[in-house]
Hints:
The complex is a heterodimer of chains A (231) and B (88). Chain A is an all-alpha fold and 231 residues long. Chain A has helices at 15-23, 27-49, 52-69, 79-98, 149-164, 167-178, 183-190, 194-218, 225-228. Chain A folds into two domains: 12-101, RNA polymerase sigma factor, region 2, helix turn helix motif (Rna Polymerase Sigma Factor, Chain: A); 119-222, Winged helix-like DNA-binding domain superfamily/Winged helix DNA-binding domain (Arc Repressor Mutant, subunit A). Chain A is built from nine helices and no strands. The relative contact order of chain A is 0.10. Chain B is mainly alpha-helical and 88 residues long. Chain B has a single domain (11-85), classed as Arc Repressor Mutant, subunit A. Chain B is elongated.
Amino acid sequence: xxxxxxxxxxxxxxxxxxxxxxxxxxxxxxxxxxxxxxxxxxxxxxxxxxxxxxxxxxxxxxxxxxxxxxxxxxxxxxxxxxxxxxxxxxxxxxxxxxxxxxxxxxxxxxxxxxxxxxxxxxxxxxxxxxxxxxxxxxxxxxxxxxxxxxxxxxxxxxxxxxxxxxxxxxxxxxxxxxxxxxxxxxxxxxxxxxxxxxxxxxxxxxxxxxxxxxxxxxxxxxxxxxxxxxx
Amino acid sequence: xxxxxxxxxxxxxxxxxxxxxxxxxxxxxxxxxxxxxxxxxxxxxxxxxxxxxxxxxxxxxxxxxxxxxxxxxxxxxxxxxxxxxxxx
Lengths: 231, 88
C-alpha cells in the first residue's frame, strides 16, 4: 500500500486531505476513520435505540452510507459532524421502523420545571435572614483515588445514572461530557439551539450529581479486606 | 444595598445557573454575583466542587467499539466500492 497514514498527522484540520484519500479509495484512511469514530458512533446509537445489537447495526449502516456517500460529501461541516448526522438519521429511521422508541420529536424540551436540587433543601423565601439559602447543605464526598474499588464503584454509579437519564439529556451529556464534543457540534448534529442544548446539559448534569450525592451519602466506606472477597 | 454586584445570589439560584457559569455563557454581572457568592458560601463551594467531580467521573467513562468482524466487512465494502468506482 503506497500511502502511509499516520494517525498523529491526520487530525481534524486535515478533513480535506482525509476526504481526498477516501475518494481515491485509500483503505488505510477508511480504516482510520472506522477505528477513530466507531466507538463514539456506537455510544450515540445506543442513546437512540437502546438495544445494543440494534445500535451496532445502526453503526454498520452508517459506515455503509459513508462508503456510498463519500462522493457527495461537501466540506460545509467537519467530517465528524457529517458522520454523526448520518448516524442520527439512520438511528431515527431505525427507531421509527422498530417502533420501540419514541419518535424523535421527543427531542423537544419537556414542559415544566425540573429543579437541580430538591426545593425542600432550601430555606423558604420568607426566611428573615437567608431566603433561598441552604437548609440542608451538600456534604463533602469521600471519593477514592483513581483505580481503587471505591472509585470503580462511583464510576459504575455514574454510568448507570447516565443510562437512566431521559433520552435527550442522555444524548447531550454523553456527547459533551463523555466524548468531549464542543457545544456547537452537539447543536449541529442534533439540530438543537444553543439554549436548548444548555438546558438539557444542565438537567442531565444536575441529575448525575444528585445520584452521586445519594450514593456518597449512603455508601462511602471501603469494604474491609476480609469482607471484600467473600464468595 | 441595591447595587447588582452586592445583591447576594441565593443558593437556590446558584444551582440553576451553574451550567451557564461553567459554559461561560453567564452575563458578566451574574458571573460577578456568582463569584462573590462563592467567597462567602462554603456549601455552594462544595456544590461546585461536586459538579466538577461529577464531570471528571463522566469524562472517564469509556466507550466500546465495533467488533473486528464488523470492521472487516466494512473494509470489504469499501474495497468493492472503490473497485466499482474505478470500473474494476
